Task: structure prediction
Amino acid sequence: MAASNSIEPRLFLNPIFTTSTTTNSSTSLHIQNFKLKLPHFPTKNPTLVFTLNSSSGSATTNNNNDNTIITPYPDDPDPEPVSAVSSEIRTRDGRDRRKIVKVAWEKLVRWSRTWRSKAKTDILERTNKVKKFYVVVLGGGSFGTAMAAHVANKKSQLKVYMLMRDPAVCQSINEKHCNCRYFPEQKLPENVIATTDAKTALLGADYCLHAMPVQFSSSFLEGISDYVDPGLPFISLSKGLELNTLRMMSQIIPQALRNPRQPFIALSAMVVASKDRKLANAVQQLLASKHLRISTSSDVTGVEIAGALKNVLAIAAGIVVGMNLGNNSMAALVAQGCSEIRWLATKMGAKPTTITGLSGTGDIMLTCFVNLSRNRTVGVRLGSGEKLDDILSSMNQVAEGVSTAGAVIALAQKYNVKMPVLTAVARIIDNELTPKKAVLELMSLPQVEEV
Result:
């Protein structure tokens, strides 16, 4: 490489071309028409042209001594400009990338079609029963009604019974095909039938969707246990912990029905969890549709505890909104809350991957950041200065996080886990701490290493 005696230009051939010089004097470096020719560059005339100037203020010259040429070939009489080369590279790379993406997508589609053809996903087509296939939903709340409508829409010959205690809502569903309390403007499928008679609803049912609030579930189930078939699978839609006993639904249902072998499935954030893999797959097929994806899991504890604790964290998130603490505070609080939930859940035997998955972090994000969350709404109003009793009396739905908060802290003590954010929520619920005081206390906690 031609240069002055005190200068040693060096070219580093990395993905981004750079130059470096070393010098023992103050001589300025001026390189013009820097030509680099590569033997396998993907163009007809593989020449790149660079113009480099030094950072000093001295004037540049155009004599031949200032030109440096690196080439394995003789000089090309007609080199292509760098802009043309770059354009051709981008065009070719763009075509290659599109081809790679297309092939990858086609492989996914083929895999999906093959899997569906082997797995007969329509559970109704697989049943050998002569009678009509039907499902019972326990409870006439918003989620229970929505799930009843979803299942009923899958097949017109599928009957969905809704067992409820309110005769007015029952009549509204049967005569007007709407839930007058929760969805007065939404028409329900005609194959959704409401009843207040447990025997009528449960006798011969193929699946049962339990959509009662956790705190009332035990007494309700004890009252209908005589009509429950010992092999009837219970799909729990309820999220929370029983306040006095700290039991989850996987414990409440079999104990209330006096049948430790009662088939149980937990549904949370569109994940069905059961220790029986075949049962989980069957429920997945029952609930999945073109508009609803259902995943399966064997980690019942992880799915249940994440579904219960996220409601308490949602109250904390709402308090941040109500106090106008901003997005950074919200992000920090939710991240801390996710860690606390993971600490307790794993101590209870849950898999860490469950807590960081759809039924864990996925459900937490939805509940903490979406305005439709009942628990987040309670938090917003608490953060704005309203009293808890006034908030609850004005709601026509149950915010499970309110009653679950105390149970969560009892569990934390049982498993020796520190949970500052969720403990603060429990103290606010018990009216022993104001939201403002809770924030100050949390900010004064020792600074520790993130885990």
Remarks:
- Residues 1-75 have pLDDT under 50 and may be disordered.
- The CA atoms of residues 33 and 51 lie 5 Å apart.
- The longest strand covers residues 31-37.
- The chain is about 45% helix and 15% strand.
